Amino acid sequence: MAKLPIIVAPDPRLKLKCRRVERVDAETRRLMDDMLETMYAAPGIGLAAPQVGHPVRIIVVDIARKDEPPQPLRMANPEIVWASDHDATYEEGCLSLPEHYADVVRPAEVRIRYLDHENEIREIEAKGLLATCIQHEMDHLDGVLFVDHISALKRNIILRKLLKAKKNKTPAQPATVAAGTAL
Ligand code: NI
Q: Each residue of 5-24: b (16+ CB within 10 Å) or e?
């Protein structure tokens, strides 16, 4: 497995509509596992493929607490087949919008159909944090970020701060090559 760099907003790669996975094969499984490793290391509870530069409909989620055994979910082509009429509000964050949070309203319960890591069709019912997390990750597959669910005013404040943080990043210094370093 390999840890992948996470793309930070604003970035056009986070605004793409991702393509469907035709079949979950070994390559797809590798991407799913790399995404899980990247997510656990961040640390985060969900990650979508476009956040690591792959415009395909794949998400990974694990909402288990630190003191619980891991419960990784690997999903390709996730679809909401049912959503509850009642909503829930969670304060959401995102690995692509580091250090920013906002209340987002979504259906409280959803039923999701997806292809698992063995290319089997599965369905799960999710509520609470799991429902929120899956819907947040699925949004990424259509280029939607959690800030797209809040007021334009709040969204612009967050995106402007992120852009400023990117611009203020000190450019990489030329690496000092120590004597005798093999290149
Ligand atoms: Ni996110």
A: ebebbbeeebeeebeebeeb
Distance from residue 93's CA to the centre of ligand 1 (Å) = 7
How does DSSP classify residue 56? B
How many angstroms does the Cα of residue 175 sit away from the middle of ligand 1? 33
- Residue 173's CB is within 10 A of a number of other CB atoms, namely 6
3-class SS of residue 159: helix
Q: Which helix (H) or strand (E) holds 111?
A: strand 109-115
Q: What is the CATH number of domain 12-182?
A: 3.90.45.10
Distance CA 178, CA 135 (A): 49
pLDDT tens track for 2-45: 999 999 999 999 999 999 999 999 999 999 999 999 999 999 99
Domain regions of the chain by residue span: 12-182
Task: Determine the pLDDT at residue 178.
Answer: 47
Ligand 1 centroid distance, CA of 150 (Å):
14
Instruction: List Cβ neighbours of 111 (8 Å cut-off, separation of 6 or more).
Output: 80, 81, 82, 83, 123, 124, 125, 126
Known catalytic residues are: 137
The environment of the single-atom ion ligand 1, i.e. residues with CB closer than 5 A, is 94
